[in-house]
Design brief:
The complex is a heterotrimer. Chain A is an alpha/beta fold. Chain A is built from five helices and eight strands; from the N terminus they run H-E-E-E-E-H-E-H-E-H-E-E-H. In chain A, strands 1-8-7-4-5-6 form a six-stranded mixed sheet, covered by helices on one side. In chain A, strands 2-3 form a two-stranded antiparallel sheet. Chain B has a single domain, classed as monomeric porin ompg (Porin, Beta Barrel), CATH 2.40.160.40. Chain B is 5% helix and 64% strand. Chain B is built from three helices and 18 strands. Chain C is flat and about 45 Å long. In chain C, 55% of the residues are buried. Chains in contact: A-B, A-C, B-C.
Chain lengths: 163, 377, 74
């Protein structure tokens, strides 16, 4: 228990001590996915806005938990040039459509049924939120969701929106 | 039978440690009615379980369990008289989730008029390798007190320790496998103060007589199991498990279980299963010794004999419609029925009559019922 | 026995640092394991009772229970 928790901390400490600087932000892989409202949504069309891409599924408890909070974030930051994209990764879109009738959201819901986009973004946990700046570069990836993480989302969005 | 029954206390603690997988189990409450009917024994009673999460980091659960025993089993009718008894058990468990590691601590107390069992457990579960692997280790310690009805001075301790290791691996999007190993050590008064062995006695009217059983004061056992769970293409699941057991008393046992789970529509989940169990007798076991004090250790508990059991199971879970109560997310009503056939190869039915050692071999059927309601909050 | 337990603890500690293995079942491919029918222990109050029924009447004990699987979220 103790040694396990120390290891990542040690790695971080040594990399900081070595004076390593954060690598330059990579451009987000472009994609086009069918949306719930019909038609497709392409990421590059949203350049100029801050985009938060949230990979989610109905079978994932924490994903369902954070959805209402994502709706609050969308409502608050959309006027500042921000949009959320909810990318559902299930091979069958029916459960997502049914569930969203009970928990409505105003941001676009896209269906990545083949998981090609999730793979391109290297999704490592469910849920995962990718923060893309106005120039289309990936600035931060947040893995998982625990109550309280929405404050971190808000901090990230605020800093990106100011650019 | 009683002494080994208290391994339940260790087993409950171990099974109570919830699965990992990055999230704590959901808040729930279960009310169960359990009933066992077989071999002249009827045991029924409630089991209540409540579990609550806090801050997605901590989870507490509590269980209250009662066995109301009405026993006229073959051991009881041949050497004593039918009795009624009640056993009450309570346990409390506390879990903490820290990123990919889950820690669990639990305590259990079981009480009846002539037996008290206490145990404490610690379990640790770690997700590894992209959360496809879960490694778990656990340790339990038990302290029992064996008493005897009618003898106020009789008070013997039993010390139990159990160490377990488990590995669970997701192999494909539809298959997961598990391996478990557990070693248990008991020390103390390991037999039943009421039970006897029989020996050939030409002077007795029946041709045999009884004397109290004598067990070794230590027992160490090792068990290893392999299990698999597979998701069928049409949304159903099949699972299988094999366990091998061996101990210092000379008992070797194999267990094989298979099961099939089939959801029906949105509201029903049906299950069916079969279990086969086979064990070889303990070294000091005999249905009939040829003279009194034939060995240092002597036992005639049918639990230590050579026997095979077959069990067929069927169960159904029904998801109740929403009652519109805000605090109740979902609820189910469940009914499980198991039929077990026990066939003994070297334990004889002395009530059947016949010359000692030639009575027919004992066998019986048991019905097990589980009826419960669960609610998620 | 103590040496064995220590060895296992060390293995756990070391293993958590090991992230070189790429998961071949991706986190977004785990919907089957999140399904309750794939849960090793859907109703603990019920399975604990059945395990008790066996242990009370059989000589064997241990190596039951399974941890792992599940949605793997967070």
């Amino acid at each position: 228990m103790r040694p396990a928790n120390l290891l990542p901390a040690l790695l971080l400490a040594t990399s900081l001590a070595a004076g390593a600087t954060a690598p330059a932000p990579e451009p987000a892989p472009d994609f086009s996915l069918p949306s719930r409202d019909g038609g497709d949504v392409r990421l590059s069309d949203l350049r100029g806005q801050v985009v938060m891409i949230n990979f989610w599924a109905t079978w994932c408890g924490p994903c369902r938990q954070e959805m209402p909070l994502l709706e609050q974030i969308q409502a608050k930051y959309e006027p500042l040039g921000f949009t959320l994209l909810g990318v559902n990764v299930e091979p069958d879109s029916a459960p997502a459509t049914t569930w969203l009738e009970k928990v409505p959201v105003s941001f676009p819901i896209l269906f990545d049924t083949q998981n090609a986009v999730a793979e391109r973004f290297g999704v490592q946990g469910m849920p995962s939120s990718v923060f893309v700046d106005r120039e289309g570069r990936v600035r931060h990836v947040h893995r998982g969701y625990k109550p309280g993480d929405e404050a971190q989302y808000a901090d990230m969005i605020r800093s990106l929106v100011k650019e | 039978m009683k002494a080994t029954r208290y391994l339940l206390v260790l087993a409950v603690a171990a099974v109570a440690a919830p699965a990992s997988g990055g999230v704590l189990p959901e808040d729930r409450a279960d009310v169960l009615y359990h009933r066992y009917d077989g071999g002249g024994v009827t045991i029924d009673g409630p089991s209540l379980l409540v579990r609550k999460k806090f801050a997605e980091k901590y989870s507490v659960s509590a269980n209250y369990y009662v066995d109301m025993v009405s026993s006229a089993s073959i051991d009881v009718v041949t050497t004593a008289s039918p009795y009624k008894e009640e056993r009450t058990q309570g346990s409390l468990a506390f879990d903490m989730l820290n990123d990919k590691t889950q820690y669990s601590v639990s305590v259990t107390n079981s009480d009846e008029n002539d037996y008290t069992a206490n145990s404490a457990s610690f379990d640790l579960s770690q997700d590894l390798f992209g959360d496809l692997t879960t490694l778990s280790i656990g340790f339990s310690r038990g302290w029992d007190e064996v008493r005897k009805r009618g003898d106020a001075n009789f008070n013997e301790p039993v010390d139990r320790r159990s160490y377990r290791l488990g590995l669970s691996q997701i192999l494909t999007p539809t298959l997961m496998m598990g391996f478990a190993f557990e070693t248990v050590t008991d020390e103390g008064f390991l037999n039943n103060p009421y039970r006897s062995v029989r020996y050939l006695d030409p002077d007795s009217p029946a041709g045999y007589a009884y004397q109290p059983e004598v067990y070794p004061r230590t027992r160490t056992s090792n068990a290893a199991s392999l299990s698999a769970r597979y998701f069928l293409p049409y949304r159903a699941a099949v699972h299988g498990e094999y366990r091998y057991f061996t101990d210092t008393w000379g008992i070797d046992a194999s267990t094989l279980q298979i099961g099939y789970t089939h959801p029906l529509g949105k509201q029903w989940i049906l299950e069916a299963g079969y279990r086969w169990y086979n064990q070889s007798a303990a070294d000091f076991y005999s249905d009939l010794f040829d003279r009194p004090d034939a060995q240092n250790f002597m036992g005639r508990d049918k639990e230590l004999s050579t026997f095979t059991s077959h069990m067929l199971s069927a169960g159904a879970t029904y998801e109740l419609p929403s009652f519109g109560w805000k605090f109740l997310r979902r609820s189910t009503v469940n009914l499980f029925y198991d039929r077990i056939r026990y066939e003994y190869d070297d334990f004889r039915d002395v009530t059947a009559g016949g010359a000692p050692g030639t009575e027919q071999l004992y066998g019986f059927d048991a019905d097990v019922l589980r009826l419960f309601v669960s609610g998620w909050f | 026995m103590r040496a064995r337990v220590t060895a296992i603890l060390l293995l756990l500690a070391g293993a958590t640092g090991c992230s070189g293995v790429e998961p071949w079942v991706k986190p977004y491919e785990r919907q089957n394991f999140a399904d309750p029918i794939m849960s090793a222990d859907r109703d603990p109050v019920s399975s604990a009772y059945l395990n008790h029924v066996f242990e009370a009447r059989e000589g064997a004990r241990g190596a039951l229970g399974s941890h792992g699987g599940g949605c793997g979220c967070n």
